[in-house]
Amino acid sequence: MTQQTPSPGEHLRTALALAASGLPALPLRAGKVPFGNCPACADNACGGRPNMKTPGPCACSGPCHAWAAATTDPNVISSGPWRRAWLTASAVAYHPGGAGLTVVDLDNADAVAWARECLPATQTVPTTRGEHWLYLGAMPSANGVRPGVDIKSTMSYARWLGPGNGTTTTLPDVVRALTTARPAAPTPTTVTVPAPAGGGQCRHRTPAFLERGIAMAEQRITGATSGVHNTVYRTFLAVLSTHGRCGCLTENHITRLFTAAQTKGESARHCTDAWDNARTRLGL
Fold it and tell me: Is residue 104 one of the residues assigned to a domain?
């Protein structure tokens, strides 16, 4: 049986239920990413959340500041700007650190096996490819603390996938230590992704324009200090929106982008998903 996609009303009801239980909620749009800044809040011009150090709505009361917009206020969640966001939302997320929680995001079977061997039992939630393990206590978030393992707590968000199973236990030192003993950057995995169809010629000025665009995209990804998943997706989206239809992108260009993302700790699967989501959004 095909699973039905939750309606905007269901997302709103879920968010209100999370808020009532003390979990700061926020909507996610297609690609499992937060809503971007509205024009009034671009570059934090509204001054609502300087440096995004604390959760809560910005001055415009819209979900414009990713994890920092997450809130437990039902009046904000049900307000006009948020209601409009729910109409196009694809999922509900929450800010773990805002509720004093840490999510150990296990992205594959090997990571789950490691957790079962090395981490204390706690509440677990099945995900598409692995599991979320929830602990009581907040800590700094970090991606790629070990193969297939991300930490989502302060200044981060996690998708709400249901209550899961088991009892939440106290955040152990072994998890806190993961962010202080980071492994070396993983060796990028070669992934073959077909380049978009087209004539093979860049219609947007000269070959140098394409080269500058790819180089800037690499720099944007490698320079990310937080929100790497979101940065990778947005960068792929920007590249495809400019060059995805003329066919000038080659496998070499795509490999360069994937290599930059994997150097920041993204898995090959995450890169492929982000690329596919960007193509889907653009109708490529």
Answer: yes
Does residue 89 sit in the same domain as residue 125?
A: no
* C-alpha distances in Å from residue 190, one per residue of 234, 260, 269: 21, 12, 11
pTM for this entry: 0.64
Spatial neighbors of 198 by CB under 8 A, at least 6 apart, are 245, 246, 247, 248
Domain stop point among 161, 179, 197: 179
Q: Are residues 101 and 142 in the same domain?
A: yes
Report the mean per-residue pLDDT for the chain: 82
Q: List residues bridging with 154 in a β-sheet.
A: 140
CA distance 168 to 36: 32
Q: Which two tokens stand for residue 215?
A: 């180089």
Return the residue matching tokens 């690609």. Answer: 31
What total number of domains does the chain contain? 3
Q: What is the spatial distance between Cα 140 and Cα 119, in angstroms, rounded to a whole number?
A: 18
The SS3 assignment for 30 reads: coil
Q: Which residue has the higher pLDDT, 198 or 223?
A: 223
Of the candidates 30, 29, 32, which has an alpha carbon nearest to the alpha carbon of residue 62?
A: 29
Structural contact between residues 236 and 274, judged by C-beta atoms closer than 8 angstroms: yes
> Residue 188 above 60 pLDDT?
no
Whose structure tokens read 């968000």? Answer: 157
Q: Does residue 202 belong to any structural domain of this protein?
A: no
User: What single DSSP character describes residue 3?
Assistant: P
- The secondary element (H helix, E strand) that includes residue 82 is helix 80-88
Range of the domain at 82: 8-93
Q: Which one of 64, 93, 122 terminates a domain?
A: 93
